[in-house]
Amino acid sequence: MRLNDRVFGMLMLILAVVYGWEAAQFPEPFGGEESVGPETFPIILSFFLGASAIYMMLKPDPDEAWPVLPMLLELISVVVAIMIFAWAIEPLGFIPAAVAIVSYLAWRMGASIKMSLIIGVSSSVSIFLIFNNVLELALPLGLLEF
After folding, report:
1. Long-range contacts made by residues 63-66, C-beta under 8 angstroms, separation at least 24?
2. What would you report as the CA-atom Rg of the chain, rounded to the nearest whole angstrom?
3. Which end of the chain is more exposed for a tag (fewer CB within 10 A), N or C?
4. What string of H, E and C letters represents the secondary structure of 50-69?
5. Which among 91, 71, 67 has a CA at the least distance from the CA of 79?
6. Residue 138 · residue 36 · CB < 8 Å
7. For residues 71 and 63, what is the distance between their CA atoms, to the nearest angstrom?
């Protein structure tokens, strides 16, 4: 896994640099340079991806045997959940769709159902408020639209 982690880290670092570079090439937002524009969030993501990739290359995980079938089923369930979230975000709205996926993923990671719901609601509402009020990027309201 050490070599795999380092190669994957290098590929992710290249992706982070290209992604950040492309995001920086977006046209200037309508409000001028001082307002948050379409490039802000992708640049933030590229920074965190780059930092994570460098960490992965410097501190790779030790070699371990993976449980093939159980791990594959978990990965498939996560991919299906994300696909359902991508489909549901428009008709249901960001908050209900995000509560569902975050709660499901927290439960799959070992949290109790009660704690999963608390995590799902608190993180979804927080992210919604950050995007709408701080970054001024509208997320779909869906069912919550009056």
Report:
1. 63/1, 63/2, 64/1
2. 18
3. C
4. HHHHHHHHHCCCCCCCCCHH
5. 71
6. no
7. 16
Side chain identity, residue 99:
V
Cα–Cα dist 44/50, whole Å: 10
Question: Comparing C-alpha atoms, which of 49, 58, 52 is closest to residue 17?
Answer: 49
DSSP letter at 35?
Answer: S
Model pLDDT for residues 26-61, shown as the tens digit of each residue: 777 666 666 666 777 888 899 999 999 999 888 887
Note the pLDDT of residue 52: 92
* 70-99: pLDDT as tens digits: 788 888 888 999 898 888 888 888 888 889
105 contact partners, CB below 8 Å, separation of at least 6: 78, 81
Written as six digits, the tokens of 39 are 């490039």
Q: Which residues have C-beta within 8 Å of that of residue 15, sequence separation ≥ 6?
A: 49, 53
Rounded Cα distance, 21 and 108, in Å? 35
Q: pTM to 2 decimals?
A: 0.57
